[in-house]
Specification:
Protein name: Ferric reductase like protein
Membrane topology: Multi-pass membrane protein
Largest sheet: none
Order of helices and strands: HHHHHHH
GO cellular component, one term: membrane
Keywords: Membrane, Transmembrane, Transmembrane helix
Organism: Hoeflea halophila
CATH topology: Fumarate Reductase Cytochrome B subunit
Radius of gyration: 17 Å
Shape: globular
Length: 184
């Protein structure tokens, strides 16, 4: 329900009536990215049935790759439809506050993916702290970005999805901190 309802509501949005297909695809890539964020902490913590331990972490890596792809599709689709708006957003010169939050979240997604690729070169404790910090930036930036946009996503399902993403992330981060404190 948490992922099906927002997509269905966005698909039924009257704001899509006169939009270019590339713009619609870019918007849905953003919706999918937000939905993938819901799964990431649950996969990393092993809280999804049948996906605990190593299997959950492996799926977490694949979903992370899909998240990067969704963000790239989102930004590239917006670039195709309006390059000046994307340039303004990337330069933090956009008059819309949601743009800055989206750009911050985007760079945090890319940094997190790069960090995941370099995981074996870093100490586990440092890697975990950096990855968790980036995850928090991604979630805050993405949620604020989504909430501030008055667009394709229907408001009630968007708020519920964002609340679930924040709740899952906060609970998992709190659990990781307790675990890390015991390991010392």
């Amino acid at each position: 329900m948490a992922v099906a309802v927002p997509v269905a509501a966005a698909a039924a949005s009257p704001l899509l009536a006169w939009r270019d297909p590339v713009y619609i695809a870019a918007g849905f890539a953003g919706v999918v990215a937000m939905e993938l964020l819901l799964f990431q902490p649950l996969l990393a913590s092993g809280w999804l049935p049948g996906l605990s331990g190593q299997r959950g972490r492996r799926v977490h890596r694949w979903v992370g790759g899909l998240l990067v792809l969704a963000v790239v599709i989102h930004v590239m689709g917006l670039w195709v439809t309006s390059p000046p708006d994307v340039i303004d957003a990337l330069l933090f010169a956009s008059p819309t506050p949601f743009s800055a939050w989206g750009v911050i979240a985007m760079w945090a997604v890319f940094a997190s993916a790069l960090l995941a690729l370099l995981r074996r070169r870093l100490r586990p404790r440092h890697w975990r702290r950096a990855h968790t910090a980036l995850a928090a930036v991604i979630v805050v930036g993405s949620v604020v970005h989504a909430i501030l946009i008055e667009g394709t996503m229907e408001i009630a399902s968007k708020i519920v999805l964002c609340a679930l993403v924040v709740a899952a992330t906060v609970v998992v981060i709190a659990r990781l901190r307790i675990w890390a404190a015991r390991a010392r």
